[in-house]
Structure formats: C-alpha cells, structure tokens
Amino acid sequence: MRTGAKKRPSYRIVVKEKQSKRDGSYLENLGTYNPARQPAEINLKTDRIQYWIEKGAQPTDTVRQLIKQAAKLEAAPTESQAEAA
Predict the structure, then answer these.
(1) How many domains does one find in the chain?
(2) Which range of residues forms the domain containing residue 76?
(3) What CATH number should be reported for the domain holding residue 43?
(4) Which of 3, 43, 51, 53 lies at a 20 to 30 A Cα distance from 68?
C-alpha cells in the first residue's frame, strides 16, 4: 500500500483480499518500507508474515524480495558480533 507525499513514496506491507483496491481496506499491517532513506528502511513483523503465508497468502514479487532483504539484515549483525567474540 503506497503512502507518502508526491515523489516521496513510502509503503505499508499489508495483507489484503485480492480484489480490493490498492489504497482500500486491508486485513493487517505487517510492516513498512521507506525507499527514500539511505539505506532503505525495512521494518517487518516476520512472525505475522509467516502466519499469513502459512494460511495461504501469496506475497508479491516485490514483497518477497523485501522479506529476503530483511532476513539478511537481521542475520548480518549477529554474524559480526560472533566474529568479534
């Protein structure tokens, strides 16, 4: 779901019925994505995303990529902490 000002987009990652409008009602807000920040800001509720995927929700290609990026970002700090120890 797109939010933000003209030419300054930010997005909400939401669960929606397939036939609903782009900015229409949604079932649950699962996170945000702000590409205007450097680096892009991704905040996701991974437990709720997993729940909806198990229920049969199909993420779009873009959301699938954001989930992978968020997983890499979560794994990276723990690896660097392990190397420091």
Answers:
(1) 1
(2) 2-84
(3) 3.30.1320.10
(4) 3
pTM of the model: 0.75
- Dist CA 61 CA 59 (whole Å): 6
Chain segment 10-45, per-residue pLDDT in tens: 988 899 888 888 778 889 999 999 998 888 889 999
Contacts of 31 (CB under 8 A, 6+ apart): 12, 13, 42, 43, 44, 45, 49
